[in-house]
Design goal:
α5 (122-137) packs across α25 and α19 (409-421) packs across α21 (446-470). The protein has 578 residues and is mainly α. The chain starts with a helix and ends with a helix. The chain contains 26 helices and no strands. The chain has helices at 4-11, 33-58, 76-83, 85-118, 122-137, 140-151, 156-163, 177-201, 205-213, 218-229, 231-246, 250-255, 263-273, 277-295, 308-313, 320-344, 361-367, 370-403, 409-421, 424-438, 446-470, 474-482, 487-515, 532-542, 546-569, 572-576.
Length: 578
């Protein structure tokens, strides 16, 4: 809607030649639906329909090696899940492990989120956000590589304890529930931190100061004021971490050594090893519903509103214990990354830590490895194509979500965000079932893999561009139109130019997420169409060698450089921290 001042200027003195501002912008009214339509159709065809196909397959009779949808409905697969101990115990085990992971992430994540939310210095704040986001967006297989070097029988911890004479035999730190919990905490901890930053930042310091002025100690003021007001963020982070942990496949596979039987492991075994697609689909449906029930209880996101008084006083209120715990949390997040870098620069003939010396021999081995170079090429190609598609679809969708007054905006925004938190292994399986049962020629193809990556990267573009458009002053666009610019010209020269940094940031996020994507890729790739995460997973599972660490070094550099570039384009805390 045009501002009264601009409207008055355009119509004064009845000048017929004066440009008139029509209500709306480049696309308005029903035309806004043209913006959301491409993304909506894409998600319906390649997210909703495949999920429905997976549900349909789950209610078919289990026949080994057969992937066909039948109209004959049976509940036998679900009866088998909930009546056989091996399966219903894995559900309980998955839920128990995920609950422990969520609790540990809360204990370590809250102090770091508090420090980030209360830090005034822009440079220090940006650095903390880059560290958290880099650890989140780095390929999880690379991070698990570092953990395996740290926790293995011949790893850093056991080696140090043996040399000190504290233990006489290596501690079992891997291939058990403990190893799985440690791995899941390392992977999901950034999500807890990001869930808490916004809500903590929205708590005005005067509330805590009022409690202290009434005689409360700093700790009592925190537990009686700050912590209760943080509960929406605590609930959101706990449920989000629970949903991510219960759906993880790669962590139990590598850190549990296939000995910790959780639902994602059963899904892969039933589908890839026994060929019982219907039963595997039934387990996937149970996992999907469990994750959906968790994220359905997520509270609406709150955005921080703070003034100059808060910004000038907040950093001095950070307790020393929170600074210590936040440093410990950053150590947990970054140690595996440092280990991967040093392992890739090891001069020894095999993997040892600490390294025998520094050398580029394994970097050279990576650069001459057909397997890893081919995987890098595939990852770059898939990430590049999916990023272009995600950027176009996501930007158009963000324009609709911020400019439409329709009641469907809220539910539609939640719908587009679902692929971020729902099980990636389930989405990959659903897409594969959809490709095979419809016989559309996308199974185990580059195009089919790109589609899966678009589904999981597009939400990041939508979130990034939406954050920029929410604060966009529409009067700037209207001012351009009052000077005679057409709606399209005003949009191109004003709106698009202002939000272009956010679009660029969304593009970077999409590329990095696609480049490191593993679980969606699991069912969609082939030995000849292997991405870098898949190649590293195979290397870690069957041949633990430093070449994989050298490959990881380049991925780490890519992520860090991308995050630094993104921080120059947009306010990272505004997008991810409220």
């Amino acid at each position: 809607m045009a501002s009264p001042a601009l409207t008055a200027v355009s119509r004064k003195d009845g000048d017929a030649s004066a440009p008139r501002i029509r209500k709306g912008g480049f696309i308005h009214g029903h035309g806004l639906w043209l913006l959301i339509l491409p993304a909506l159709l894409f998600f319906i065809v390649f997210f909703v329909v495949p999920t429905a196909s997976l549900f349909g397959l789950a209610f078919n009779k289990s026949v080994a090696g057969v992937i066909t949808l039948s109209s004959d409905i049976t509940f036998d697969n679900f009866v088998r899940i909930f009546t056989r101990p091996i399966y219903y115990e894995s559900i309980l085990r998955s839920a128990g492990i995920s609950a422990v992971v969520a609790l540990v992430c809360l204990v370590f994540g809250y102090p770091l989120a508090y420090v980030i939310a209360k830090t005034v210095n822009p440079g220090r704040n940006t650095l903390l956000m880059i560290l958290v986001l880099s650890s989140m967006q780095l390929d999880m297989v690379i991070r698990l590589y570092g953990l395996m070097v740290l926790l293995g029988d011949n790893g850093l911890i056991n080696g140090a304890l043996l040399r000190l004479g504290i233990i006489s035999a290596p501690l079992p730190l891997m291939y058990n529930i403990f190893g799985v919990v440690v791995g899941l905490v390392q992977i999901t901890l950034p999500f807890m931190v990001l869930s808490l930053i916004g809500i903590i930042k929205s708590i005005h310091p005067s509330l805590e100061e009022a409690a202290r002025s009434l005689g409360a100690s700093r700790s009592k003021a925190f537990f009686s004021v700050v912590l209760p007001l943080s509960m929406p963020g605590i609930l959101a982070g706990t449920l989000l971490v629970f949903a991510l942990a219960i759906s993880s496949y790669v962590v139990p596979a590598l850190m549990g050594g296939w000995k910790v039987m959780v639902m994602p492991i059963h899904i892969y075994q039933q589908v890839a090893e026994t060929g019982r697609w219907q039963f595997g689909a039934a387990i996937a449906v149970v996992l999907f519903v469990t994750s959906l029930m968790a994220i359905a209880r997520l509270p609406p996101r709150r955005h921080a509103h703070h003034g100059r008084t808060q910004l000038m006083r907040e950093e001095t209120s950070i307790p020393l214990v929170f600074k210590f715990l936040s440093a410990l949390t950053l150590t947990i997040l970054l140690t595996p990354v440092v280990i991967v870098i040093l392992s890739g620069l090891n001069s020894g003939d095999y993997l040892t830590f600490p390294p025998q010396g520094l050398s580029l021999r394994w970097v050279y081995a990576f650069l001459t490895s057909p397997t890893f170079l081919s995987a890098y090429g595939v990852s770059f190609m898939v990430a590049g194509i999916s990023t272009v598609i995600s950027t176009v679809l996501g930007t158009m969708a963000a324009l609709f979500l911020t400019r439409s007054s329709s009641r469907v905006v809220g539910p539609m925004r939640a719908f587009f965000m679902m692929p971020i938190v729902l099980p990636g292994v389930v989405l990959g399986l659903a897409l594969y079932v959809f490709y095979v049962t419809t016989d559309i020629g996308l199974a185990r193809t580059m195009a089919g893999l790109v589609i899966g990556h678009v589904i999981v990267t597009c939400p990041f573009v939508i979130a990034t561009v939406t954050a920029a458009l929410v604060g966009f002053d529409r009067s700037l666009e209207e001012a351009a139109r009052s000077l005679g610019a057409s709606p399209f010209t005003a949009f191109r020269l004003v709106t698009l130019k202002i939000i272009s940094p956010a679009i660029s940031a969304g593009t970077i996020f999409a590329f990095i997420i696609s480049f490191g994507q593993f679980e969606v890729t699991l069912f969609l790739s082939t030995p000849n169409l292997q991405t870098l995460p898949m190649a590293m997973y195979v290397a870690l599972r069957y041949a633990f060698e430093p070449t994989a660490a050298a490959a990881g070094i380049f991925a780490i550099i890519l992520v860090v450089v991308s995050m630094v570039a993104t921080s120059k384009l947009v306010n990272l805390k505004r997008i991810f921290g409220g």
